[in-house]
Amino acid sequence: MTGTVAVVGAGPAGLMAARRCVERGLGVTVFDKGRRPGGRTNTREHAEHRFDHGAQYFTVRDDRTRPFLEGWLESGVVEEWAGRLVRLGIDSLVPARESRRYVGVPGMIALPMHLARGLDVRCGVRVERLERSGGMWRLSDDEGHDLGVYAHVIVAVPAPQAVPLLAAVPALQSESRRRSMAPCWAAMFAFEEPIESDFDGAFVQDAPISWIARDTSKPGRPDGARWVTHATPEWTTAHWDLDRGVVAQMLALELERLLGPLPERTFERAHRWGYALAGDPAPGVLHDVTAGIAVAGDWTLGGRIEGAILSGLEAAELILPNS
């Protein structure tokens, strides 16, 4: 199989890159190791429970993103989250900085699923090797299966996952290796009764938990009392190897310390999120025009969802300037 563009990673960066290439009349194949598109904008579903366990929302600050936002709002896959957000300390609670925050509806997964429509997205495929030969790129998976030959490649995965794929372009590999990403234990809880609280989301200070959110306060979510917590990178690293059931119980105790006595839990689950935060963002999208390869992701443009979106667009433009 010979194609024009291969995109590795079906998160916001990879999907935006793929869409831009398709708009320019190019053949594109997207590969992702997950069971469906999403990346960090994913949603966990456990029976009747649904949680945004990764990225909680996104903001738009760049004029290049606004036309896309308008389309997503019009199509109904995104809505503004008017939740009450605060900064929560040991003895303090103050409103968070005012901002328009947006979420996928009925879950964060709605946005990447919308972006994936009409694209050739092949999930459950773990790309392991990119080989450069004869001016083309040959891809193979972790079982040695040939995934085809392509003129261009866009790698849109977390920096540590990009490193082994970039052996044929040492400069990009070296730059990717320099970029760290911090982990996060995310915990999801459902309660028998609603929890009384003065806020829907909180940036927590001086605690093992860095973020808590009333997931059911977001638009389009089913009724119920569901909360999500994110542990700090430091706490996560120290407890990374624990059983997820133990971690869920530990974070439930931390949530109770912050919110007070809680109703009985009807569901709890912890999730290891290995590459949650960009510790040292790269100075922009990495690329080699001669080799026809670019490396995108939120970690290349500031660490936010909007950064991922813009990095995908830039990656497509950088390697295909004359297409």
Would you kindly provide a written description of the structure presented here, covering whatever features stand out?
- With about 325 residues, the protein is an alpha/beta fold.
- It has 2 domains: about 1-45 and about 110-180 and about 280-320, FAD/NAD(P)-binding domain (3-Layer(bba) Sandwich), CATH 3.50.50.60; about 50-110 and about 180-280, Polyamine Oxidase, Chain A, domain 2, CATH 3.90.660.
- It is about 25% helix and about 35% strand.
- The chain has 8 helices and 19 strands.
- The protein has helices at about 10-25, 65-75, 110-115, 160, 170-175, 235-240, 245-260, 305-320, and strands spanning about 1-10, 30, 45, 50, 80, 85-90, 95, 100-105, 120-125, 125-135, 135-140, 145-155, 180-190, 200-205, 210-215, 225-230, 265-280, 285-290, 295.
- Strands 1, 2, 9, 10, 11, 12, 18 and 19 form an 8-stranded mixed sheet that branches. It has a 7-stranded mixed sheet with strand order 7-6-14-15-16-13-17. The protein has a two-stranded antiparallel sheet with strand order 3-4.
- A hairpin with a 2-residue loop joins strand 10 and strand 11 (about 135-140).
- Helix 1 (about 10-25) runs parallel beside helix 3 (about 110-115) and helix 1 (about 10-25) runs parallel beside helix 8.
- The longest helix is centred in the last third of the chain and has 16 residues, at about 245-260.
- It starts with a strand and ends with a helix.
